[in-house]
Design a protein that fits this description.
The complex is a heterodimer. Chain A has a single domain, classed as MetI-like fold. Chain A contains 11 helices and no strands. Chain A is flat. By secondary structure, chain B is of the alpha/beta class. In chain B, the strands form 2 sheets. In chain B, strands 6-7-8-3-9-10 form a 6-stranded mixed beta sheet, sandwiched between helices. A 4-stranded antiparallel beta sheet of chain B has the order 2-1-4-5, with helices on one face. In chain B, a hairpin with a 4-residue loop joins strand 1 and strand 2. In chain B, helix 2 crosses helix 3, helix 3 packs across helix 4 and helix 6 crosses helix 8. Chains A and B meet through helix 8 and helix 9 of A and strand 6 and helix 2 of B. Chain B: GO terms for molecular function: ATP binding; ATP hydrolysis activity. Chain B: InterPro entries: AAA+_ATPase, ABC_transporter-like_ATP-bd, ABC_transporter_ATP-bind, P-loop_NTPase. Chain B: It holds the Pfam family ABC_tran. Chain B: This is ATP-binding protein.
Chain lengths: 268, 259
């Protein structure tokens, strides 16, 4: 969200920023990364107890990539997140539309949505284990719940916020309720849905590691927890960085889709 | 005269906490076929509500609104509406916006395309047919909205302060274009405005309304010939009518409070 506004509200021409500007921004980003690595190395050299330096972590990463562990773990984690996220969003969009469009549906569903939204999905884990065992189901379920609750609220909000004059404009041209829903409400709330999806993906990814603490056999969270037992900080760092990079990549992909699909919005 | 739109003893009230708010108090008004009527009045006089009833977007509490002799039952493409806020679909290009109503009429694609193109050319937006609304100025957006209304060829145009948000120059241009089009196809136009000059310049009859409760105050006939010209705006006759309307709008006796 913050990146979105920051990028969207660039003081330069909204359509295209000058290439020199963005090159400058990339250069600054790289400088920041280098400074970070230097500080990290310094901290490790000065001797913060057991802290591995970047090179050590890189070596460990190479090792984990070579023996295929990192790939297997990353794929296992991605699969859980994507399945949970997709199921959550697939359910959230129609439920959000129902709540926004029909007062009855809203009245019936809103107490549950608002109530479960206040419970961190992680707090559901003990219950999920008892009810669903220790297989994939409870992990995916918790991620699903996290994604669903974030998306449903913003979809619902998007439908409620659709400009009444747009609906009236369609009605006076002779549009039926069905047409208004499909041709006006759905496109008008797309920006909200996409923002909801990004937030949902964020919370899905954020729930992953904790979900993998439930007796997983593979996955980035599981690998880090194993490493903790053996005091293997390098592996923990590799896991953290992998989670960060993958999360960032997925967020950027969604941001790209969002830009594509909501290019029509007036950005001020 | 052939009556096109008829408001018969129309009342509109909204419930308040422990009272009712009367937006329109027993309004009766006939608008002739092919007439250009403007409705002017202070804010809160119910002029937009009156228009929305003809559009079928608002139902009267009592009384009835007839178009061509039959009661209005919801909106329909026979009555084109133009809103002050343009109300373009921002995700559709100018052409797609204009085609929106045509698609609902189940026309063959070619016919649809042709009519949209004609409407776009009529309002002078041909060069922007494939632009998104965000690329357009306020005046161009309103032209697009007008083209969208014209495209479905309604018999009645209902315009709710359509030029209210535009700068003075653009407003004059759009007024002249509107009159030009109207003199050719002679639709019935009900045009809401709070601008006295605009009301007099466009209409053959100005309806002045009063507020609290919203009601008809005065009807002023504009005996100026069409086409209206720039010189006419400066003529003594125009000035006289304008003053009459101005006086009716701004020096209204306060309403007698309902017992």
């Amino acid at each position: 969200m913050t990146q979105l506004t920051a990028l969207g509200k660039s003081p330069a021409q909204p359509a295209r920023r000058a290439p020199s500007r963005s090159r400058r921004a990339v250069a600054l980003n790289l400088v920041a990364v280098v400074i970070g690595l230097v500080v990290w190395t310094a901290l490790a050299t000065v001797g913060v107890q057991g802290l591995p330096g970047p090179l050590e972590v890189a070596a460990k990463a190479g090792e984990l990539i070579a023996d295929g562990t990192l790939l297997t773990d990353a794929l296992a984690s991605l699969r859980r997140v994507l399945v949970g996220f997709l199921l959550g969003t697939l359910l959230a969009v129609p439920v959000g539309f129902l709540m926004g469009w029909y007062a009855t549906a809203r009245g019936l569903l809103e107490p549950y949505v608002q109530f479960f939204r206040t419970i961190p999905p992680l707090a559901i884990i003990p219950l999920a284990i008892v009810l669903m065992g220790i297989g994939e189901v409870p992990k995916v379920f918790v991620i699903f719940l996290a994604a669903f609750l974030s998306s449903v609220v913003s979809t619902f909000q998007g439908v409620v916020d659709v400009d009444r004059t747009l609906i009236n404009a369609a009605r006076v041209l002779g549009a039926s309720d069905r047409t208004i829903f499909l041709k006006v409400v759905v496109p008008a709330s797309t920006p909200f849905i996409l923002v909801g999806m990004r937030v949902g993906l964020g919370s899905a990814w954020g729930t992953l590691v904790a979900a993998e603490l439930i007796a997983a056999q593979e996955g980035l969270g599981f690998r880090m927890q194993q490493a903790q037992l053996y005091y293997d900080l390098s592996t923990i760092f590799v896991g953290l960085i992998a989670i960060g990079v993958l999360g960032l990549l997925m967020d950027r992909l969604l941001l790209l889709a969002e830009r594509r699909l909501t290019n029509w919005q007036e950005r001020r | 005269m052939n009556v096109k739109i008829s408001f018969r003893d129309v009342v509109k009230t909204y419930p308040l906490k422990d009272d009712t708010f009367t937006a329109l108090d027993h309004v009766s008004l006939d608008i002739a076929d092919r007439e250009f009527v403007t409705v002017v009045g202070p804010s809160g006089c119910g002029k937009s509500t009156l228009m929305s009833m003809a559009a079928g977007l608002v139902e009267p509490t009592s009384g009835e609104v007839l178009v061509d002799g039959s009661p209005v039952d919801g909106p329909g493409p026979d009555r084109g509406v133009i809103f002050q806020q343009y109300a373009l679909f921002p995700w559709l290009t100018v052409r797609k916006n204009v085609e929106f109503g045509l698609k609902l009429m189940d026309l063959p694609a070619e016919e649809r395309r042709r009519r949209a193109q004609r409407a776009i050319e009529l309002v002078g937006l041909a060069d922007f047919a494939d632009a998104l609304p965000k690329m357009l100025s306020g005046g161009m957006k309103q032209r697009c909205a007008i083209a969208r209304a014209y495209a479905v060829d309604p018999q009645v145009l209902l315009m709710d302060e359509p030029f209210g948000a535009l700068d003075a120059l653009t407003r004059v241009q759009l007024q002249d274009q509107l009159l030009d089009t109207w003199s050719k196809d002679q639709r019935t136009v009900m045009f809401i405005t709070h601008d006295v000059d605009e009301a007099v310049y466009l209409a053959s009859r100005v309806i002045v309304m009063a507020a609290r409760p919203g009601r008809l105050h005065k009807v002023v006939d504009v005996d100026l010939p069409y086409p209206r010209t720039e010189e006419m705006r400066l003529s003594p006759e125009f000035g006289r009518i304008r003053n009459e309307v101005w006086h009716a709008v701004y020096h209204q006796a306060p309403a007698v409070p309902a017992a």
